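Q: I'm a student working through a structural biology exercise. My instructor gave each of us a protein and asked us to get a predicted structure, then write a short paragraph describing it. Mine is O-GlcNAc transferase C-terminal domain-containing protein. I'm not confident about reading structure output yet, so if you can add a plain explanation after the tokens, that would really help. Here is the sequence I was given:
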Amino acid sequence: MTSDVIAKMINEDKIQVLINLNGYTKGARNEIFAMQPAPIQVSYMGFPGTTGASYIDYLVTDEFVSPTRYAHIYSEKLVHLPHCYFVNDYKQKNCDVLGPVCPHERSDYGLPKDKFIFACFNQLYKMDPEIFDTWCNIVKRVPNSVLWLLRFPATGEMRVKAHAAARGVSPDQIIFTDVAMKHEHIRRSELADLFLDTPLCNAHTTGTDILWAGLPMITLPLEKMATRVAGSLCLATGLGDEMIVSSTKEYEDRAVELATNPAKLQALTNKLKEVRLTCPLFDTARWVRNLDRAYFKMWNIYCSGRHPEPFKVKEDDSEFPYDR
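A: Happy to help. First, here is the predicted structure for O-GlcNAc transferase C-terminal domain-containing protein. I'll explain a few features afterward.
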């Protein structure tokens, strides 16, 4: 169906709030939004950044991912959801992860049983030389440790190992495995000891995967939206202070500290596993209510004749109703 036909249908159906879930990613149909078929047009989830488009009124985000102090870099008005803007549904789809016994073993993936395993399951393009050098420093500072990465894509494996070798890290300390199906990927994540995030483009879906698996992470938020998502995920578990750092040096030192202090890391891991059923990050019903509150607020602003304006959603039924 052509874009102009779709835009005409949206307009004739009197859609009030139109959501752009793609932004500038594969499959995007931004030309539909450019025709402005709906009175309110919103960017959410698929593209972690500003569209720079005058025809997108709002960006659904949260206070950590898109702080008000950075509002000037967004063309959209910022709508801050409580807790974390990122949605997931693990309670319905992946409850078996909560079981005490992992059905996978390290040997299933060529992982050593007796070594500390740092891991990053992000696509390899998210790495940059600075963070990889930091990972090499971490592995060299932690005796008997390895770094577990994915062949994502497979063509990067030899180049990454060569880069590590040039920095004094033995090739056998960098272990690659194939990308797994979602269910297996989440469950096997707990075979690692600590997840190392990529600052320039964080773990987003991967971040929720590993936190649901009970695997702690270290993340370094910067300024842009894509660099702050993992920090928001961590904060929404209630354990952000233990997983978020503020500099590359602190990133390296925190990773080494947790790896060389088993009791401290185990305490963090235990707390993360304990909060999975109660923390805001995995409370999908609560997230849905808050998103509804945001949509009703957008519509009320429009109906009052005002231009789009930034606002923070509050979990207050009198000020932000979600069921009417």
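A: Here are two points you could use in your paragraph. The mean pLDDT is 96. The two ends are 33 Å apart (CA to CA). It's a good idea to check both against the output above yourself.
Q: Great, thank you!
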